[in-house]
Design brief:
With 244 residues, the chain is mostly helical. The protein has one domain: Orthogonal Bundle (Arp2/3 complex 21 kDa subunit ARPC3), CATH 1.10.1760. It starts with a helix and ends with a helix.
């Protein structure tokens, strides 16, 4: 009984914390983040480049946006808040993919099946990869930031923590995803039948990470000034006061 009450109490605290966080983070930013994660999932099934030593999928076009978002949230609200929003985005992606699977099974539309067929393999690979990379990004971001003791809120600190955490997490995200989605899972019947070599996976994980880091670097001033504006305006003070 004590264990059951403790679990219930913990779930209640977590739900209250999540509601407070969603009220604190600007809704437009959260919605955009969720849509980006869902979009990454669908775009990643499209191969843009296929060479003996390199393959790139279309997910690279927007994946950097999700890490830019997490860097902003991590800086202002902490890694735990960014983790929670990442899990929310993953849950939304799971729900979206479930709808796609149902459509694929019951609509009997061959053209539609080309879009959503084999979605479970992409879903499995992207979920595993994104959970690992999101946690890596957020905690690495916090650790790098802690090294800047003199001016932790300066541009150099923000840029360094964003670039390092993004590159490391993107290497992990890219390799885990493409290796599972295009090397391991295609061996299972019903999975998306797109096949990459291990060499292509290694090339993609590094090249994509550089491209995504450069993309974020281009737009990191927006992230930095967003954080500064939130600090000036007192954005999210309720969550920060209670949980940070």
């Amino acid at each position: 009984m004590h264990t059951k009450n403790s679990l219930s109490s913990r779930l209640h605290r977590e739900s209250v914390m999540m509601v407070t966080l969603l009220k604190s983070v600007p809704a437009a930013l959260t919605i955009t983040f969720v849509l980006v994660v869902i979009g990454m999932n669908f775009l990643s099934r499209i191969t843009l480049v296929s060479l003996p030593w390199l393959a790139l999928n279309a997910g690279i076009l927007i994946s950097w946006l999700s890490f830019l978002f997490m860097d902003i949230v991590t800086k202002h609200y902490g890694a735990r808040a960014a983790n929670k929003l990442a899990m929310l985005a993953i849950a939304a992606n799971l729900a979206c993919c479930l709808v796609c699977v149902l459509i694929s099974r019951f609509a009997h539309a061959p053209a539609l099946d080309m879009v959503v067929g084999g979605q479970w393999s992409i879903l499995t690979a992207s979920t595993i990869a994104y959970v690992i990379s999101a946690l890596t990004n957020n905690y690495t971001n916090i650790y790098i930031g802690s090294l800047f003791t003199k001016n932790p809120d300066g541009k150099a600190a923000y840029a360094t923590r964003s670039f390092v955490s993004t590159f490391l997490s993107q290497v992990l995200d890219n390799f885990i995803f493409v290796f599972l989605a295009f090397v391991v899972l295609p061996m299972i019947p019903g999975a998306l039948q797109v096949h990459w070599t291990v060499m292509q996976c290694l090339g993609a994980s590094v090249i994509c990470a550089f491209i995504e880091m450069l993309s974020e670097a281009l737009f990191s001033p927006i992230g930095y000034y967003t954080v500064k504006r939130w600090q000036r305006n007192g954005t999210g003070l309720e969550y920060i006061a209670k949980y940070c």
